Amino acid sequence: MGSSQSNDKLHCNRYLNGKGPPSLVQQANQDVNGMYRAGQGSQPEGQMTWVILHRDLPGFPNDNTVQINYIFPDGIQTKKHPNPGQPYEGLRLCAYLPDSREGRKVRKLLDKAFNQQLLFTVATNQDGKDIITTTSIPLKTQPDGGSKVDGFPDSDYLKNVRQILKDKGVE
To answer: How many CB atoms lie within 10 A of CB 132?
Structure first.
């Protein structure tokens, strides 16, 4: 301490023509592999909660069910939406997962995707109303009825949604 000098190099981007170390913001957003995370999505402000239901899903007879609740109030679109300054209609949506090891992993990944604003967006529906809708990340919104109605059984869903989330940088 005192007047002794450190052998650590100090970098100043001003004198290195911007070729110094990454900024603190870049460092905070840096993934383990050194790639920078994609920017936030266009999801409006909302809430995600989940509860365990003591019933099984078709195809998962030995597991309880995780019910994920998504709640978005009505709001005003921002610059990341199709019609900034215009209102959009809120949304209440439930999604379902088996309470298995793999299902819990997917729930955690969906939580990350929600926090990165990647699960929902504002879009204009066929009636010309601006509404909140899901993005390209599929959610099982019915506990049964099969994959044709976004329900279970769907033996490939957990594997497929994990791959889609991975492709979007959510791991």
So the answer is: 23
d(CA 125, CA 6): 62
- Cα angle 138-143-148, degrees, rounded to a multiple of 5: 55
pLDDT of residue 41: 86
Nearest of 103, 111, 45, 37 to residue 78 by alpha carbon: 45
Mean pLDDT along residues 58-80:
96
Residue 80 CA, chain-centre distance (Å), reads: 16
CB 107 within 8 A of CB 95: no
Residue among 161, 125, 129, 123 at smallest CA distance from 42: 123
What's the whole-model pTM score? 0.76
- Residue 49 CA, chain-centre distance (Å), reads 13
Total count of residues recorded for the chain: 171
Residue 35 has a CB neighbour count (10 Å cut-off) of: 10
Cα–Cα–Cα angle for 48, 30, 138, rounded to 5 degrees: 35
Percent of the chain whose pLDDT exceeds 70: 77
The SS3 assignment for 93 reads: strand
